[in-house]
Amino acid sequence: MELMHSDIFTHIDSSPPPLTAPGPLAGKSVAIQPNMSVRGWPTEAGSVALERFIALEDATVVKRLRAAGAKTMGSTHMSELGFGLAGDTAAQVLAEGHVDIALITDTMGEARVAASTIGVFGFKPSYGIVSRFGLIGLVPSMECFGIMANTLEDVATVMGMIVGSDDHDLSMPEFGPECELPDFSQVCETKEPVGAIGVVSESMDVLEPSESEAFSLALSRLEQAGLKIQELSIVDFDLFRTVHNVIGSVEASSSGGKYDGVRYGHRCTSAKNWNEMYLRSRGESFGLLVKTYMLQGAYFQFENYAAFENACRIRARLVRETEKLFNKADLLVFPTSRPGFDAATARTINEIYDAFSLTLLADVTGLPSLVLPGLVFDGDMDLGLQLVGPRLSDARLLSAALSLSHLSKGGK
Amino acid sequence: MSLDYEAVIGLEIHLQLNCATKMFCDCPNRPGDEPNQNTCPICLWLPGAIPKFGQEALEKATLTCLALNCDIQCESAFDQKVYYYPDLPKGFQLSQFHRPLALNGRLDIIGEDGAPKRLHIHKIHMEEDVAKLVHETEGRTPISLVDFNRAGTPLVEIVTEPDMRSRHDAMEFIRALRTQIRYVGSSECSMEQGTLRVDVNVSLRPRGSDQLNTKVEVKNMNSIRNVGDAIAYEINRQAACLKAGEAIVLHTRLWDSEKCVTTPMRCKFEGPCVPDPSVPQIVISDEWLTELQSRLPEMPGQKVERFVEQYGLIREQAVLMSSERELGEYFEAVVNEDVPPRAVAYWIATQLLPALKERSQTFNETPLTPARFASLLAMLERDEVNANSAKEVLSRLFDSDQTPEAIVERSGFRQVSDTVELELLVDQVLAANSSAADGFRNGKTKVIGFLIGQAMNASQGKANPKLIREILISRLS
What we know:
The complex is a heterodimer.
Chain A: E1 9-12, E2 29-32, H1 60-67, E3 71-76, H2 90-95, E4 101-106, H3 110-118, E5 121-124, E6 144-149, H4 152-162, E7 196-200, H5 201-205, H6 209-224, E8 228-232, H7 238-255, H8 274-285, H9 288-302, H10 305-325, E9 331-335, H11 349-355, H12 360-365, E10 369-372, E11 377-378, E12 381-382, E13 385-388, H13 394-404
Parallel strand pairs in A: 2-3, 2-4, 7-8, 7-9
Antiparallel strand pairs in A: 1-3, 4-6, 5-6, 5-10, 9-13, 10-13, 11-12
Chain B: E1 5-16, H1 55-67, E2 71-72, E3 75-76, E4 79-82, E5 92-95, E6 102-110, E7 116-128, E8 132-138, E9 141-147, E10 154-160, H2 167-184, E11 196-206, E12 216-219, H3 224-243, E13 251-256, E14 261-267, E15 273-275, E16 282-283, H4 286-294, H5 300-311, H6 315-321, H7 325-335, H8 341-359, H9 370-381, H10 387-399, H11 404-410, H12 419-432, H13 434-441, H14 447-458, H15 465-476
Parallel strand pairs in B: 12-13
Antiparallel strand pairs in B: 1-10, 1-11, 2-6, 3-16, 4-5, 4-15, 6-7, 7-10, 8-9, 11-12, 13-14
Helix pairs in contact in B: 2-3, 5-6, 6-8, 7-8, 7-9, 9-10, 12-14, 12-15, 13-14, 14-15
């Protein structure tokens, strides 16, 4: 097969496929990222800090996908520790038809922005319904496994296979009547009526005129199709970005603390003592963006803890305010990508937050979010219509998207 | 210490909980095994692993808090205590900083003046232990190795209020704490083996003042006596500094048990603590707590009162019989065999405890079961054996599985209480010691002891000394 392009895969599974692979995902091929553990695979998470790290165990998601019959083709190139989309090839392997499904970490909107750039479906589930065991990330309170696929059916089937409690991840909530695990088995058969769609007016304020126009056009098409557009407000919408930045960088500083270059990863050889060895190994390992982010997090930890505490309080308030909007609308909608702010080439913290300013709400709040292609066009660029639903409404969100997808003009 | 100053002392005590597994994974909690045997991706802190907080650690930690009379918090949480050291290569320690498991504990001790004194505990929190560094040389190159067996093993840290004023207070506090914890059985509490580690904070202030001055932390004591010595040294050292007009600087010192001095180690370092996003908040329900409380044994304070009340022990005896849970249980098991409680307490204190110590045995493993000990004491009570013989029988009971009765019979320890036989014996003794007998008749009553001794010797220790005395007196008067 022509898959041996090392420019899109960092590792290709050379093991023979299982003879019989029954299950709902039989015949489906999946690309993963090298921050998702597969026993025996190089798992470098896009960072020199994890050079030569080989995972010892399968991530629960990988184990469940394989058990459902999926073939894990290999792992793609990714941004350092899943922060942003620099050098990421997950969208490319899917666009070029090497796989049916690509998994991609969603920390600030990566799965959805990447999906919109190639005109496919991109999904970020409710936080806590998919085990994070085996995910080597940076921002544990926000990041999760994201899914890109050509069809909503594939998204739903994958979700159906990977959701649910896991003995290896006790940070997941206990599912029961109080906290109902979404049921993905009927997504494609269920007609989910969408009455009102909410537009957060403050999110419009950040748009460039051409983005604004593209989004308005899409909204009027939805309106013509019989949907009610409801204008809603989150006064402090711009604080989503600040909160993500402060909390994300603090968590990144902690999560990145374990990369010392001693047991795996790049190790500086010329240091005079252990302290210098750690400092130089780490200094030489991380790229500028992640290094800056971790340093910023350390600043909040050591020098300005009060700002971090404020960010946590504000986060809780933003979560409450966002949940309240679902009393007035079934779904919230936003554009996804921003043509003027390329997520793949962002070089500073500010630039990266510009590129994800419309998607990080779902990561801060833990809400499910799906990107629907073919509805929002700025010129010939598909910005992706982003739907955000209430917590744990994942299955209904996918059903609703299915009922909207007939409005779609199709991908590029 | 100078009379002008008063010491203000607080303790930070780490207890290693005796759980079967580590705090966040299923690896065995056996730090002393072959290096790096008891490890997994979680406690090696490898990427992709997620800590799994275990129920056993929560139970043992909560029992510890209950034993120290704390208010258990129904919600608590783990934080990341951020610092880097080669024994903590993940860059943070999971510890409860912002929301500890328990607050407001207390323990009562007897102060130096003999009056009861209540000492307060500020908080108790759970935390994981770090790995252990081993420094060696490879050829001529010094190398440092990391052993992860200890990484992630369960600890609680007990932070007291600065209530203590002397080495006595601190040492008594640690002893009282050890007794309480051993009762609930959540930790071995051995300073020598490092399952109980005590850091001391000492500051001085002018007598009569209530200010809290800059403190100095002292670490590295491996016995309760060391703690006392380190406090005494530190009080004198700080008093000398203050007299010389030197300022006390916040820092950490190490106790050197060979030279008996403290030496400066480093500035006291406090890293930041941020909430951990992966370990869920710990929620304790009323039902769970009630269930746990119902499993608490009778604690030493209650037991002392009951022993005084129920068995008529004098207070010192009751305190001793309650000082260890196993000792108290042994005492009651013997008493239940119908032996007078005071005699049991007396024999345990004067004979059994030294004998066990000499043989390095515990109450649970000694072959001298409560039943065997009780039958010996019952024979003593029935005058079937005298006290001296009983001591000899006691020591034989450790090396044989025979009953005390059998040992007494076969070795001829049975006390002779037959009056006819004893009268004969006394007459022989009086005949052989006529001058002593005359002395007694002339008022030298003290010779009775000599005469009893002669009679006992003649009976090879088997005569009933009480009867001998009675017969002697009646014969001589």
